[in-house]
């Protein structure tokens, strides 16, 4: 044990059982819960995290009945025939030395199917299905179903259950007047509205006995209109504690809230303050959550007595060995979660399997397997961007002799541009991780080393991997060669001076990144108090849901030094192609800065005064001192054909393979899959 993280690594005694440290792997749906053979894969997934040292795991949400499912065929636990598959998971986790709780989650009006039910027939803004109002009989049956699911979970070998009472799901819907308009004993007064979670707590404790962990996920900040007050949250917390909860976990924000809570632009540990506030009122262990992604942040929260445990979900997708690395004094070797959501939550909301941009093995432990090599090869990888780094590390760790070349002076490729974008500072961590991993894996790194066909032929390589990335697509319109026309690399790589009025051509991910870069003086992500004010989060909790009015002095809080117009040819909403769970944050951020967004633009010509465009058939001049072109990329693969002609085995990955849009998720995954096959 390292003294640096002694509080994080300290056991937590619950009386009848002890959790070996203060780290909880938070609930996260993977999609394996519904896949064919999914529970065998889930067993491997969770066992990896258990071997990695996490004290307590909470599964993805499992419904107690059919109407509570998240989707038509989502997982539920309601009869003994379903117990056996869950036992595969619990046995694997216990054999690996950890404990595991099953989360019981009833979607309520968030159910993405026509059979959803809720306290009142009020449709959620994030699903097309309007729920039916629950009858009193349905309410009482649902309470029994929670207890039945908990009893079955105990039979399946789980160490406990987590009752999901936050994030806007069914229990939360009963608690808040926003979604509970009932006039019977289950609605109206706050006492009536919290009857549902209290009756569930009673029924679950009676069903499982005293020697079974019950975690209650308490919505401490609803962040929606007509949410709970602080006094109401404290009241419910005390009632739940009195009814036998062993641990109270923190819930932050409803899924429909217009306040970001987990994306990468949210400061680390941004919501620890509310957990600390509740901890003063309760006696059972309290868990802090959201954007805790390093052992330093976790340890600080625990040392400051702001929580008794810390919950991390996505950080265990990024690195299953998070805890053992921290314990061994190797925190600099942790593959840090960058909170991008691209391969985890964005996948889940598209009914795809969750994995991780920076760790493509997550949830694929039984399918992408890095076996030691039978015969060592000498491999050249040209390009030290995300794809090349991934391929180099995995291939060397398998036992190949790997030489990684890059014509630049540092590794990272496009990540070196991403890390400059306000709100994307976490990309620094990924570059740090790969730099250390290359050393540990024994990769021969050759920087400032541009390769040719001749040099690669002379190297005697068995395989050459082309990971040379992309080059920006040039704009083919009149005036594109004028001196005030820049490519995005001129701005992010070369840091050329940019004027006060800017027109950005292309509203994909790069266009949004460039716009944020040009309109930000100091990143709010690095100033948690200012970030709260910008997003209207009231830390005094004077208003329901802790929502304050959006600040009138936004320009002072987040000054914008430029007038930016962001344009795209497509007629769809600007930013429609951004991540499902993060795109709205980027759009709202730029909108608040006064960025003008235009869709359906025809670019006519660039002139010294700006750019002449046509929108809805009307020609107009957008005045600009600088034009920044973010109009796509082309693959760099000039070495491929002559190497193949020379009889050398050549592989192409990352942007050199497909350059339609910069896609680090695909690039890193391609690198891993190629390395596994070499």
UniProtKB/TrEMBL annotation:
Protein's recorded name: NADPH-dependent 2,4-dienoyl-CoA reductase
Residue ranges of every copy of the FAD/NAD(P)-binding domain listed in the record: 377-660
Cofactor(s) listed: [4Fe-4S] cluster; FMN
Keyword Metal-binding: yes
InterPro entries: Aldolase_TIM, FAD/NAD-bd_sf, FAD/NAD-binding_dom, NADH:flavin_oxidoreductase, OxRdtase_FMN_N
A single MF term (Gene Ontology): metal ion binding
SUPFAM superfamilies attached to this UniProt entry: FAD/NAD(P)-binding domain (SSF51905), FMN-linked oxidoreductases (SSF51395), Nucleotide-binding domain (SSF51971)
Residue span(s) of domain NADH:flavin oxidoreductase/NADH oxidase N-terminal: 8-331
Keywords: Flavoprotein, FMN, Iron, Iron-sulfur, Metal-binding, Oxidoreductase
EC annotation from Swiss-Prot or TrEMBL: 1.3.1.34
BP GO annotations: fatty acid beta-oxidation, unsaturated, even number, reductase/isomerase pathway
A Pfam family that the UniProt record links to this protein: Pyr_redox_2
Coiled coil: none
Family: In the N-terminal section; belongs to the NADH:flavin oxidoreductase/NADH oxidase family.
């Amino acid at each position: 044990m390292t003294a640096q993280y002694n509080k994080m690594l300290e056991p937590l005694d619950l009386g009848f059982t002890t959790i070996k440290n203060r780290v909880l792997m938070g609930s996260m749906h993977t999609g394996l819960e519904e896949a064919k053979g999914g529970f065998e894969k889930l067993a491997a997934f969770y066992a990896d995290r258990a071997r990695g040292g996490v004290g307590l795991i909470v599964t993805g949400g499992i419904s107690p009945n059919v109407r509570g499912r998240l989707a038509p065929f989502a997982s539920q636990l309601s009869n003994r025939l379903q117990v056996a598959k869950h036992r595969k998971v619990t046995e694997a986790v216990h054999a690996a030395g950890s404990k595991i709780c099953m989360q019981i989650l009833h979607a309520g009006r968030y159910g993405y199917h026509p059979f959803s039910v809720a306290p009142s027939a009020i449709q959620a803004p994030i699903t097309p299905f309007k729920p039916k109002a629950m009858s009193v009989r349905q309410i009482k049956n649902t309470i029994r179903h929670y207890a039945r699911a908990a009893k079955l979970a105990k039979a399946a070998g789980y160490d406990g259950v987590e009752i999901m009472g936050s994030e806007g799901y069914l229990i939360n819907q009963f608690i808040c007047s926003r979604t509970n308009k009932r006039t019977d004993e289950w609605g109206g007064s706050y006492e009536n509205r919290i009857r549902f979670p209290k009756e569930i707590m009673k029924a679950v404790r009676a069903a499982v006995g005293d020697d079974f962990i019950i975690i209650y996920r308490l919505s401490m900040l609803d962040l929606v209109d007509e949410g709970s007050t602080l006094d109401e949250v404290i009241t419910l917390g005390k009632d739940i504690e009195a009814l036998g909860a062993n641990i109270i976990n923190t819930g932050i924000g409803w899924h429909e809230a217009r306040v970001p809570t987990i994306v990468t632009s949210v400061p680390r540990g941004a919501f620890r303050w509310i957990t600390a506030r509740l901890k003063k009122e309760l006696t059972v262990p309290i868990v802090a959550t959201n954007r805790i992604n390093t052992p330093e942040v976790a340890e600080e929260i625990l040392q400051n007595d702001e929580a008794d445990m810390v919950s991390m979900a996505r950080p265990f997708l990024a690195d299953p060995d998070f805890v053992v690395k921290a314990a061994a004094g190797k925190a600099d070797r942790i593959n840090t979660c960058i909170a991008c959501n691209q391969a985890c939550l964005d996948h889940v909301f598209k009914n795809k399997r969750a994995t991780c941009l920076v760790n493509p093995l997550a949830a694929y432990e039984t399918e992408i397997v890095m076996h030691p090599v039978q015969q060592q090869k000498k491999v050249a990888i040209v390009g030290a961007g995300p794809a090349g780094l991934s391929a180099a590390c995995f291939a060397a760790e398998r036992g190949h002799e790997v030489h990684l070349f890059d014509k630049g002076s540092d590794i990272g490729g496009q990540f070196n541009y991403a890390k400059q974008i306000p709100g994307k500072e976490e990309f620094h961590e990924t570059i740090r991780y790969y730099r250390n991993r290359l050393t540990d894996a024994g990769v021969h790194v050759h920087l400032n080393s541009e390769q040719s066909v001749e040099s690669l032929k002379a190297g005697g390589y068995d395989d050459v991997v082309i990971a040379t990335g992309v080059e920006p697509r040039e704009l083919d319109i009149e005036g594109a060669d004028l001196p005030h026309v820049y490519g995005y690399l001129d701005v992010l790589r070369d840091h050329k001076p940019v004027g006060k009025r800017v027109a950005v051509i292309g509203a994909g991910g790069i266009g949004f990144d460039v716009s944020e870069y040009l309109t930000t003086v100091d990143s709010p992500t690095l100033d948690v108090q200012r970030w709260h004010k910008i997003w209207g989060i009231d830390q005094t909790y004077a208003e329901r849901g802790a929502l304050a009015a959006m600040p009138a002095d936004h320009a002072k809080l987040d000054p914008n030094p430029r007038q930016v117009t962001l344009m795209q040819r497509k007629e769809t909403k600007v930013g429609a192609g951004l991540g499902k769970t993060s795109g709205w944050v980027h759009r709202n951020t730029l909108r608040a800065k006064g960025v003008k967004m235009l869709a359906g633009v025809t670019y006519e010509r660039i002139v010294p005064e700006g750019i002449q465009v046509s929108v809805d058939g009307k020609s107009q001049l957008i005045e600009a001192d600088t034009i920044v072109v973010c109009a796509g990329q082309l693959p760099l693969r000039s070495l491929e054909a002559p190497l193949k002609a020379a009889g050398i085995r050549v592989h192409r990955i990352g942007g050199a393979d497909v350059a339609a849009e910069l896609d680090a998720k695909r690039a890193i995954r391609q690198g891993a899959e190629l390395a596994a096959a070499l």
